[in-house]
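Retro notes (design track)

What went well: tokenization of the new backbones is finally stable.
What didn't: we kept losing track of which sequence belonged to which structure.
Fix going forward: every design gets posted as structure first, then sequence, in one message. First example under the new rule, 534 residues:
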């Protein structure tokens, strides 16, 4: 059986799609490969022929469809526009379609109506039934994969199916699934559960080794939504990964995502540093503890978040972070509060988005019960659109959109951006491990291209880039590596911010007739929804 695996394109303008910067500085076509499809491929029978095409790299041909017996598509909700294109092409060639990924959790009815086979949840537990149905052409099937997969039995993803690993800036590895916390807006706990399940240290080393054997040169992203969901097992894995990285002369720098309580864990941070982790994304969301309590993100409340960020950086690990606007009863000064906190935090790569009630989350269920959810307003891109519900408090959606557009543009102006990252870069500590700072020739060239672009070609940026560059060079040269990351994302975000502002202003001139821009809910009763003058 011939399987054509397709990974839809991301929209050109999202926070996460930094391909233009990677193409310019790193000279790679995209950021990360489709790990879900690579993982699924490892479970298919040996007699199946597989072609994997990431449409962010290249598009499939007519011959690919004529060759295929079945088209597999895995996607997130944000990829659904290109997904429709894939569906149309497959149908035009009368090729049956199997669909999986987070999209099926968010939009189960749409997936069911559009595909011949649909997997909800994890594929490992239903793979034998699915394969049998494929072989016997039993269509119209849906599978509830759940979230109980024992990852200690997981197979190594088939990275060799990628046409060229070095088309990507990074490779993806998954250590765990699930998160112990219960953030109201999050769909991760809905899909993967609240009991973190992990692979063994030996499995992770095997995946790193498989990537190295294929001569990949770049970073490796451990894509867990919360890497420290099980701290004990994370520490054990990091110990073995550190030994492997050292034995291999530190071929890879490692990135991951974690909750802010990472800043309380010295032993864990030390092990991360020894494993050559140089970057972590944390979900800060808001500095307001009252709002954190509302969103059930209580793990962020104890302690001083700025002190935690400082602790993380002291181990040589730079920080990216996520922030959200749109929670119930936000103070009208929240825009200035968020801005000042982001500046004080020193975080350059700040994913500031508007709150979206993702389907089938605690938040969407609550808002629906309260009569505030705008069901017909389907939003998936937090930095371009948001608030698919009537806000509670005193801030209307019109105000949110207007002030957010100003804020994201201001935060990504060259002066604001480079001045706030400078103190953070100067405070970045040294990661332990001989050879951990040895720069490859390709990394040196990335930095050269960045200096040429930001230091010479970008007129409005030059002054601020050079000021930061020279301070880091003379006061903390080990942070040049982090500056390179910050500069790459600055190039992307400074352009994305302009798009966001333009897109929002255009929307406000011609909003959806289903939207509610000038009403708020003043208290617990939805009957108190009142119009507010714009």
């Amino acid at each position: 059986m011939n399987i054509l695996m397709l990974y839809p394109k991301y929209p050109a303008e999202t926070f996460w799609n930094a391909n233009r910067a990677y193409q310019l500085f790193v000279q790679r076509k995209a950021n990360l490969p489709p790990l879900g499809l690579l993982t699924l491929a490892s479970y298919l029978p040996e007699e199946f022929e597989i072609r994997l095409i990431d449409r962010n790299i290249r598009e499939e041909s007519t011959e690919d469809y004529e060759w295929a017996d079945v088209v597999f598509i895995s996607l997130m909700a944000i990829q659904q526009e290109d997904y429709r294109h894939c569906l149309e092409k497959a149908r035009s060639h009368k090729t049956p379609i199997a669909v999986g990924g987070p999209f099926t959790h968010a939009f189960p009815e749409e997936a069911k109506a559009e595909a011949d086979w649909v997997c909800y949840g994890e594929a490992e537990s239903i793979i034998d039934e699915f394969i049998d149905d494929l072989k016997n052409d039993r269509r119209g099937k849906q599978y509830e994969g759940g979230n109980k997969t024992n990852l200690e039995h997981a197979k190594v993803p088939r990275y060799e199916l990628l046409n060229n690993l070095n088309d990507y800036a990074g490779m993806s590895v998954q250590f765990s699934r699930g998160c112990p916390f219960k953030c109201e807006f999050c769909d991760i706990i809905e899909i993967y559960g609240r009991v973190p399940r992990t692979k063994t240290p030996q499995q992770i080393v095997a995946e790193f080794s498989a990537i190295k054997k294929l001569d990949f040169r770049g970073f490796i992203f451990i894509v867990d939504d919360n890497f420290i969901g099980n701290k004990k097992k994370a520490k054990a894995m990091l110990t073995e990964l550190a030994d492997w990285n050292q034995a291999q002369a530190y071929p890879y720098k490692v990135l991951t995502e974690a909750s802010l309580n990472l800043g309380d864990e010295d032993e864990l941070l030390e092990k991360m540093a020894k494993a050559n982790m140089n970057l972590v994304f944390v979900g800060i969301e808001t500095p307001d503890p009252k709002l954190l309590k509302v969103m059930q993100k209580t793990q962020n409340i104890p302690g001083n978040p700025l002190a935690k960020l400082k602790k993380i950086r002291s181990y040589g690990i730079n920080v990216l972070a996520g922030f959200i606007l749109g929670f119930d009863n936000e103070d009208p000064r929240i825009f200035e509060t968020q801005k000042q906190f982001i500046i004080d935090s020193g975080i350059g790569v700040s994913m500031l988005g508007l709150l979206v009630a993702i389907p089938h989350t605690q938040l969407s269920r609550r808002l629906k019960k309260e009569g505030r959810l705008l069901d017909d307003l389907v939003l998936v891109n937090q930095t371009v659109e948001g608030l698919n519900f009537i806000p509670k408090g005193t801030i209307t959606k019109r105000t949110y959109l207007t002030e957010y557009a100003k804020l994201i543009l201001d935060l990504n102006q060259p002066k604001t951006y480079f001045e706030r990252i400078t103190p953070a870069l100067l405070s970045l500590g040294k990661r332990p491990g001989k050879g951990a700072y040895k720069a490859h020739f390709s990394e040196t060239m990335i930095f050269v291209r960045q200096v040429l672009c930001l230091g010479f070609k970008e007129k409005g940026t030059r002054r601020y880039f050079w000021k930061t560059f020279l301070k880091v060079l003379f006061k903390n040269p080990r942070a040049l590596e982090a500056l390179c990351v910050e500069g790459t994302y600055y190039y992307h975000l400074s352009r994305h911010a302009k798009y966001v502002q333009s897109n929002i202003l255009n929307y406000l001139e011609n909003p959806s007739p289903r939207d509610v821009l000038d009403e708020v809910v003043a208290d617990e009763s939805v009957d108190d929804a009142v119009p507010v003058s714009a």
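Added context from the reviewer: The first strand starts at residue 2 and ends at 7.
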